[in-house]
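Here is a typical protein record:
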Amino acid sequence: MTELILINISGNDHPGVTATLTAILAKHNAEILDIGQSNIHHILSLGFLIKTDSATSGDIMKDILFKSYELNVRVRFTPVSVADYTEWVGRQGRTRWIITILGRKLDAGHIAAVSRVVAEQELNIDAIRRLTGRLPLDEDDAERAHSKQCVEFSVRGNPRDRSAMQDAFMQIAAKGEVDISLQEDNMYRRCRRLVCFDMDSTLIGTEVIDELADRAGVGDKVKAITERAMRGEIDFNESFRERVALLKGLDTSVMQDIAENLPITEGLDRLMTVLKRTGYKTAILSGGFTYFGNYLKRRFGFDYVYANELEVDDQGRLTGRSIGEIVDGKRKAELLKVMAQVEQVDIQQTVAVGDGANDLPMLSTAGLGIAFHAKPKVKANADQSLSTIGLDGILYFLGFKDSLIQA
């Protein structure tokens, strides 16, 4: 007669536990139907679901019980019915989701709130893992200001109301100063290949056109137009022409100084180091200017830059016009599609990151669109947002773990 037995092992972890216990199962020709193991602060949790027959099950449990005593670990045996196992197998066809909780600090309240939403949606939590490193107990205020914590839930099932689930996560994030990402755990999430970034207020903490305007003495006028454009109150192309026209007569010699003193966004260096090391292609798709995009390309190793080219006269001064087609929101989405074709990746394997209203088309086109420290309108219309830490937070949305990506 066939028997199904769930064997749970717990206790202080040390080398050889898994090898020793599986050797016993092998000796008795037990079939392992499922296996799982985790280690939290050197405490082992190991489980086997085995299939055997009633003639040998007693010997298996006796041998494992004696060996567990020698290994100083605890063991528990639980019989599993064929009906329960069949129901468990049937759940394998359900959709799997990844929920990423990210912030400067996570506490039990954040975990409880997210878990409550998962339960209300009648989803099952398969696993929880920490993606960031452990924080020291004596962390000072300066370290805490730049720390980051991330926990990833793997859940299974079909949400009763995905829209309501997303709304609930947004409310938790707003109250708790965390970011919460919900992604379907499909093959595309596991093999993203192309990441496209906006530049101004995303890769750098300023709008370059504002920096140029300050040098030209028209800073207030240009900033007012910029803010209206980023909030989506006026057409980007119209605002772009108005702002560039105000730069007429500015000597281009100031551009190098501006480029060398750009405020680089927190986490960019680490993000690019990891993306390049792991074979991702990266691009800057900017409504800003090619001079500054190319500077960042040289400094951080981006593969592509598409931005606007400022026209310069024979005396090295800006004419107040740009050359070629304006890179607006529509153009960014088009370029994203073209680069996906060039790199021979499915559009679902692409990631887009931006902060302004003109980034929404590419955010909605990409397989994963992330609103980064974005305006309210952009966050409300993007599937994912990152507002609590720097750009390297994107790595956790991609499933990277600190222990594997130390730069």
DSSP finds 16 helices and 15 strands in the chain. The chain has a mean pLDDT of 92. The first strand starts at residue 2 and ends at 12.
